[in-house]
Amino acid sequence: LLGPIFLFEAADGSGLRYDESEWLVESLDGELVLTAVSARMSPFSRLRTGQRGRVGRIERDGRREARVFFD
Question: How far apart are CA 36 and CA 42, in angstroms?
Answer without folding.
Answer: 10
